[in-house]
Amino acid sequence: MNIVIIGTGYVGLVTGSCFSEMGINVSCVDTDKIKIQKLNNGIIPIYEPGLEELVKKNYKAKRLNFTTDLKNCLKNEVKIIFIAVETPPDKFGNADLHSILSVARTIGENINNYVLVVIKSTVPVGTSRDIKIIIQNELDNRRVNILFDVAVNPEFLKEGSAIKDFMSPDRIVIGVENGTARKIIDKLYKPFTLNCYRMIYTDIFSAEMIKYATNAMLATRISFMNDIANLCSLVGADIDMVRSGIGFDSRIGTKFLYPGCGYGGSCFSKDIKALIQIGKKSGYSMQILQAVENVNKKQKTILFDKLIRIFKNDLKGKIITLWGLSFKPNTNDIREAPSLAIINLLLKKGVILQVYDPVAMNEVKKKFGNELRYFENMYDAVNDASALLLLTEWKEFRLPCFKLLKKMMRHAIILDGRNIYDKKEMQLNGFTYIHI
After folding, report:
1. How far is 187 from 320, CA to CA, in rounded Å?
2. Are residues 223 and 198 part of one domain?
């Protein structure tokens, strides 16, 4: 089977690599010539555990190839076209659909046989209908009668475990219109469903909504717990005990109940903004999601607020260390990361910032350049620091040598944005310890 995947971002590259691992011939297409050139040279543009090995293996086996020439790809006997281009938010929070609609036009201009067009990008409800209309209009302009179908297959990949998520999915959601499309999808995903992983077939509009609703629910749980954690700090309750107490309720469960310094990444904020705008266009106010977004925006500054109180607003010239810059562990993605909000606030206060992250420092350097001091070692980064802020819960931060930290720091102050340390232990080690 030959398939084309348009877009070599996070979703497209993981999808293409995993399909090729199952013996499918995959052509990954992107308009970014430099990115395609790097991929053809074995240089992976994103950090994701296991991805580089998978790409190189299947590229070498000639099951996976990269190109900028979509028109040429469509000349081949392509059975399925996946659209996995980005849909970033515009200034109002709406999903920007220019790229995906442009791709639809190109497909309509160039297909020569039946294809199933599968939308993998996160798009507002109704976008699949628009894509179908655009493709059909282009076929009509060409005066050709070529059949095609459109399906929606939202992705649920977690950065840091995307390969596992794709290879062993907890569910595969497919929005289809007819039996022909369903048979093709069944065949494509059969290698991933041999162990009875769940296939969920829906109508197309519902599939488009499922992606947004999933991310909205997860973000809501995070913001809810952050709100409760902030209240706990005022009334004297322990948020970890509260989390355990509610998490063992079978109606609630334990996942996404961890308080922290705010969520980030490419999905939650973008999708919540888009869902709010979808509501507005439909004449409905998404009040809960507006609150979720407001809570998260404030949560990203909570460690800064605590630091201000500790030093009584006198931060100018002080050295502050940040451990963790990516929005979560096992990725170099800094989009919407709490670290960006913290860095901007601290720089305005005249702070000397020393930072360390296992994989995301190059991404931060692109944004802040020489405004920060970058270190290749977590301990070197705390030298002479007045305080250490932990923003990402990388494994190597879990059991540091506290004796060495205390010796190297000017003041033994740690602000833990992910609650990974034990308060009593930190106090016994002589640290002023502030957590969420």
Report:
1. 55
2. no
What are 326's two structure tokens?
Answer: 């990516």
330 and 411 fall within a common domain: yes
Instruction: Please check whether residues 326 and 181 belong to one and the same domain.
Output: no
Known catalytic residue: 73? Answer: no
Domains identified in the chain, total number: 3
Range of the domain at 163: 2-202
Report helix, strand and coil shares of the chain as percent, to nearest 5. Answer: 45, 15, 40
| Count of positions (residues) in the chain | 436
Q: Quick one: angle between helices 51-60 and 33-40, nearest 10?
A: 80
Of 18, 73, 267, 401, catalytic: 267
Q: What is the pTM for the complete model shown?
A: 0.92
- Is residue 209 included in any domain, yes or no? no
- The tens-digit pLDDT sequence of the chain (436 residues) is 899 999 999 999 999 999 999 999 999 999 999 999 999 999 999 999 999 999 999 999 999 999 999 999 988 789 999 999 999 988 888 999 999 999 999 999 999 999 999 999 999 999 999 999 999 999 999 999 999 999 999 999 999 999 999 999 989 999 999 999 999 999 999 988 887 668 999 999 999 999 999 999 999 999 999 999 999 999 999 999 999 999 999 999 999 999 999 999 989 999 999 999 999 999 999 999 999 999 999 999 999 999 999 999 999 999 999 999 999 999 999 999 999 999 999 999 999 999 999 999 999 999 999 999 999 999 999 999 999 999 999 999 999 999 999 999 999 999 999 999 999 999 999 999 999 9
Q: How far is 19 from 342, CA to CA, in rounded Å? A: 39
CA dihedral sign, ordered 222, 224, 227, 233:
negative
Alpha-carbon dihedral sign for residues 312, 348, 418, 356:
negative
Quick one: how far is CA 419 from the chain centroid?
Answer: 21
Q: Which of 366, 361, 292 is nearest to 323 (CA)?
A: 361
Looking at the structure, do residues 174 and 188 belong to the same domain, yes or no? Answer: yes
Within 31-126, residue ranges assigned H as helices are 33-40, 51-60, 70-73, 98-110
Residue type, 87: T
